Amino acid sequence: MRIRILLILSAILILATLALDMLLIPSLDTQNTGFIQYSPVFYWHIPVAWVALFAFLCVFIASIGYLWKRTAFWDIVAMTSAELGVVFTSLFLVTGSIWAKFAWGTWWTWDARLTSSLVLWIIYVAYFLLRAYISSPEQRARFAAVFGILGFVDVPIVIMTLFVAKEMHPGDVAFHLDKPQMILTLVTGVFAFSVLYLGLLFFGIHLKEDAAELTRLKGLMEDNDNG
Amino acid sequence: MKFWSSVAAIAWKDVLSELRTREIIFSVLVFAVLVLVIFNFAFDLSPDLMLQIAPGILWVAFAFSGVLALNRAFIPEREENCLEGLMGCPVGREAIYVGKALGSLFFMVLVEAVILPVFALLFNIAVLQPELIVVTLLATIGFVAVGTIFSALAVNTRAREMVLPILFLPVVSPVIIAAVKASAISLNGQSWGDMTIWLAIILAFDIIYLTVPFLVFPYVVEE
Predict the structure, then answer these.
(1) Which of A134, A139, A158 lies nearest to residue B174, judging by beta carbons?
(2) Does the N terminus or the C terminus of chain B have fewer Cβ atoms within 10 A?
(3) Which of B178, B103, B98 is nearest to B138 (CA)?
(4) CB neighbour list of residue A87: distance below 8 Å, 6 or more residues apart
(5) Is residue A5 part of a domain?
């Protein structure tokens, strides 16, 4: 029930973001300034980036939780959050790419933001490869937790290094939300995607817990048949 | 004090077994030279282009040969069940991490000490600059700190050698980027002042990735 409410709420909020984005934002760009905050893509790009980073933070916290408590619950939280983090990072890359095509005329540039998010994306895809290559569930959870911690520690270093490497200064990155419509749309978007993340996270945890329970019951049945 | 004597014993064991078998250093060296030769063919470099591309080539050679060397850090332990023996010893798990990392650091530095002159010879670049040597050493510490714990993870997976580069290379990418940039500055004849930010990044990476793996390594070698 809780999950359904969150998902319905996020659907409504996402529709609201879409409406604000389509109705308010295009009318702002009277001089065709080309700044990213005047582009409708921006109001999807930033919320998605925020959720991706938040998801990776949750992987980090849940990984510590697993190593501390050793309950399957924390492993499921970490894994579900990592899945969502990869999905939202992919969306971030796609929306960034759309913006790049619009603003710079090419789908991909080795810009600091795009490159650092690509590196983060690869780190968390590697998280799933590591999981896939370990057969024992206990060891898989433990190793994934270790990697979840080591990988997250890298996030700020990757972002900082790439910004320095591409000689970008914070001033180049900061966007000036000088119109109230912009702030309204962005806040709605961030809120919508945060609720969507929470809804999907709880849904994923619920699914995986059911799957684990099913496996346990199947095992019991087989034991009964054999016994 | 007891901690460091066990660390030294573990590192020395690796060095000694390498001196007797010569498994790692020789093949890693040949591989690294091979990488340099392939790059030379691939780019067909003119002298002015050389200085721009050379730092990248050098670090690709170091990174790839590093993966090869680090893969071997835990495979022998695993094959002969030596890790269980080590874990049975009255030493902390952290000491195993530091000891293995020191052993790998020794191999990497040895390989780099040979590769740098070969690189200088093949690409006609002066490498004997204190800046370049310091950058190489600092970046190698970060490499080995991450690589040792990932090697311990990878050796317990089904695909073993395949897993390490996939885990390792994205995580060490900041060090590789910073080392390439700092090496380029040094090869261009500039000095310390121009590379402060890169040295700071490498140092920060070293400190973080010596601390965090030190704390989580006991969870990797548990059973």
Answers:
(1) A158
(2) N
(3) B178
(4) none
(5) no
Contact A146 B197 (CB under 8 A): no
Query: Which pLDDT score, from 0 to 100, does residue B1 have?
Result: 67
ipTM for the whole complex: 0.90
Is residue A210, in this structure, part of any structural domain at all? yes
Residue B96 has pLDDT above 60, yes or no: yes
CB contact under 8 A, A162 and B219: no
Instruction: Among B150, B173, B195, B211, pick the best mutation site for testing chain A contact (most A Cβ within 10 A).
Output: B173
Radius of gyration for the alpha carbons in chain A, expressed in angstroms and rounded: 21
CB contact set of A174 (below 8 Å; sequence gap of 6+):
none
Burial of A42 (0-12, 13-18, 19+ CB in 10 A): buried
A187 in any annotated domain:
yes
Answer whether A135 sits within 8 Å of B159, measured CB to CB: no
pLDDT of residue A168: 63
Domains of chain A: total: 1
**Domain range holding B84?**
2-220
Does the pLDDT value for residue B19 go beyond 60? yes
Domain count for chain B: 1
pLDDT range class, residue A174, cuts 50, 70, 90 = low
The tokens for A57 are 């933070």
> Which of the four pLDDT bands, split at 50, 70 and 90, describes residue B223?
low
- Kindly tell me if the per-residue pLDDT of A146 is higher than 90: yes
Across the interface, whether the CB atoms of B153 and A133 are under 8 A apart is answered no
Q: Please provide the average confidence, as pLDDT, over all residues in chain B.
A: 88
Query: Residue A169 and residue B84: Cα distance in Å, rounded?
Result: 50
Report the residue from B167, B197, B222 with minimal CB separation from A164: B197
Q: Do the chains contact at B222 and A142, CB–CB below 8 Å? A: yes
Put simply, whether B196 touches A (Cβ < 8 Å) is: no
When pLDDT is averaged across residues B67-77 and rounded to a whole number, the result is 87
Tokens 């890693």, located at residue:
B28
pLDDT at B78: 81
Residue-by-residue DSSP string for A78-119: HHHHHHHHHHHHHHHHHHHHHHHHHHHSSS----HHHHHHHH
